[in-house]
Amino acid sequence: DFAIPETVSISGTVRASWFPSQLLPNIQISASDLSAPAISGTSAVTPPSTNVARADPGTGQYQMILARGRSFDLGLTIPYLDNSKRLGTLNFSLQPSPFTPETNQPLFDFTLPNLPATATIHGKITGSQGTGLAGMVVTASTQSVSGASGAGFSATTSTDANGNYSLTVLTGTG
Predict the structure, then answer these.
(1) Which of 72, 76, 99, 147 has its CA 20 to 30 A from that of 47?
(2) Shortest CA distance to 63 belongs to which of 10, 7, 8?
(3) Which residues of 49-62 are buried (b: 16+ CB within 10 A; e: fewer)?
(4) pLDDT tens for residues 34-79?
């Protein structure tokens, strides 16, 4: 037998002063069910029960339906852009956590903090003969962004035909 749980709705708006109001692409709000049983014998990137909603790109508004009375970890994933070029990904763990909805939450807004400046890291990956290696993946990530509580950042790039890479990261990260 399978019983469909009672549900509640949460909705709100994602805002950030550093995001122009007309440019809110691909913001995802996730709610991972902390009370869901783990699936044995598997290793999943996301917990076994994760709801994902995408914020409207023009307004930042979202809506999500969750199981009533269960515990959720709320998160926000945002592509970090510079003139429509993707520099990396910001991940925010949202408070309060865990969140246990009992009734419809008519408004659950997220205002994101200002972020530190960016810096560019350049380098070259070479093989044992000193020749540049093409297509190598270079990643930088942190679980701590200065001045942005609960924020993490990651950026990834690949080396060019000569082994060179350039990666833009947030400064002041830990």
Answers:
(1) 147
(2) 10
(3) bbbebebeeeebeb
(4) 877 666 655 555 555 788 899 988 888 899 988 888 888 888 888 8
Cα 60 from Cα 41, distance rounded (Å):
38
| Residue recorded with tokens 């019983």 | 3
C-alpha to C-alpha distances, 150 to 21, 27, 50, 137, 158, nearest whole angstrom: 23, 16, 19, 26, 28
Residue 61's H or E segment, with its range, is strand 61-67
Give the span between the Cα atoms of 37 and 16, in whole angstroms. 35
User: b or e along 9-27 (b: 16 or more beta carbons within 10 Å of the residue's beta carbon)?
Assistant: ebbbbbebeebeeeebeeb
Q: Which amino acid is at 13?
A: T
3-class DSSP state for residue 129?
A: coil
Q: pTM here?
A: 0.73
Taking the C-alpha atoms of residue 64 and residue 72, their distance in angstroms, rounded to an integer, is 12
CA nearest to 7, candidates 67, 50, 53: 67
Amino acid at 22: Q
Tokens of 118: 């960016």
